[in-house]
From TrEMBL, chain A:
Organism: Wenyingzhuangia marina
Keywords: Phosphoprotein
Signal peptide extent: none
Protein name: Hpt domain-containing protein
MF GO annotations: protein kinase activity
From TrEMBL, chain B:
Gene3D superfamilies reported for this sequence: 3.40.50.2300, LytTr DNA-binding domain (2.40.50.1020)
Natural source organism: Wenyingzhuangia marina
Identification of the protein by name: Two component transcriptional regulator, LytTR family
Response regulatory domain residues: 2-114
GO molecular function: DNA binding; phosphorelay response regulator activity
Pfam families: LytTR, Response_reg
Length: 105, 242
């Protein structure tokens, strides 16, 4: 599986280390909550909310440079809108990789 | 340009904030995680531009736009491309950026907004559009006109004559004359009634600057301006005649 990176964050920061730290801190703060919401909505089978939270998580997937995983998330969101949960396993794997990566920062 | 950011995702607000800081001329007036907070802010403050997320809980970006009576320019920020077509149904939406946004794409959007502001409103007040004409004079507000893609400030009471010249108008002040791509009607709407009067289909004058009136013409500074028969009664009514 592809590895996350902070290339986009560095590019955006343009050498501004404070910004880099701040953005990473917000990601570390916001991501677990969104991930938890995703798993909760799966348990509750709240389809509308699952779609909403997958949509939100796509941004963070892209920020961490996970291009393939982003495509999978887009496809997964489309599947959910169509009423099936294909690619759920792959999406969960992405979340797991992101969790590990953010913990390492 | 004053702008606000409306997005429920803190990460996204910080990204836009950072991009704004890398572009000159953008000042962030506020950041809001939901549309209701943003509406409250807009009820009390005027902004030039909103960076708006479409997907927000309870109240989507499009719902938000529909609550605004006079929406400023809006740049949508979203993780979807599927709403692009809907976006074109709103005149106020200038651009549509898909996350993650890189600086070159952001710059392109800002340039689009600047162009939209310049081309849509060639003549505009710098102040609140909610201001009445009388208020604008009393508080000495200015008029901004678009000349060579720059917004040039003119002090309204300094204007003594405006002349229509085809697709352009010439605005004359004691210090300088300005040629602006606009119409007499548009500028008339921006000027205080108690100070300015249309005396001819091609001329609006500042009645406080009249030197004398002779038959069907008035002398203002060094300009002799024709007064049409239909406008003469109103001119005479406005003068403090002995």
């Amino acid at each position: 599986m592809e590895k996350p990176n902070i290339d986009y964050i560095k590019e955006l920061a343009g050498g501004d280390k404070d910004f880099e730290k701040k953005l990473i801190a917000i990601m570390i703060d916001e991501f677990p909550t969104e991930k938890e919401k995703y798993y909760n909505s799966l348990e509750l089978e709240d389809d509308k909310f699952i779609i909403e939270i997958v949509h939100k998580l796509k941004h963070k997937i892209s920020i961490l440079g996970l291009k393939k995983s982003y495509e999978i998330a887009v496809e997964y969101e489309n599947n959910l809108r169509a009423g099936n949960s294909d690619l759920e396993k792959e999406f969960k794997e992405t979340l797991s990789v992101m969790t590990q990566f953010l913990a390492s920062l | 340009m004053n702008c606000i950011i409306v997005d429920d995702e803190a990460t996204s607000r910080l990204v836009i904030n950072q991009l704004c800081s890398q572009v000159g001329g953008l000042e962030i007036d506020g950041e809001f995680s939901n549309a209701i907070q943003a509406i409250k802010h807009l009820n009390q403050n005027e902004v030039d531009l909103i960076f708006l997320d479409i997907h927000m809980p309870d109240f989507t970006g499009f719902d938000f736009i529909q609550t605004l009576k006079n929406p400023p320019k809006i740049v949508l920020i979203t993780s979807d491309t599927q709403f692009a077509i809907d976006a074109f149904e709103y005149d106020c939406i200038v651009d549509y950026m898909v996350k993650p946004i890189a600086l070159p794409r952001f710059l392109k959007a800002v340039k689009k907004v600047e162009s939209a502001i310049l081309s849509n409103e060639p003549v505009q007040e710098s102040t609140s559009t909610k201001s009445t004409k009388k208020e604008s004079v009393a508080s000495g507000k200015d008029l901004y006109v678009n000349i060579d893609r720059r917004l040039v400030k003119i002090n309204i009471p300094d204007i003594y004559l405006i002349e229509a010249k085809g697709d352009y108008i010439q605005i004359k002040t004691e210090a300088k004359n300005y040629v602006v791509h606009s119409t007499l009607k548009k500028i008339e709407d921006k000027l205080p009634d108690d100070l300015f009067l249309k005396v001819h289909r091609s001329y609006v004058i500042n009645i406080k600057m009249i030197i004398d009136i002779e038959d069907n013409s008035v002398l203002i500074k060094k300009d002799v301006v024709p007064v049409s028969r239909s406008n003469r009664p109103e001119l005479m009514k406005r003068l403090n005649l002995l």
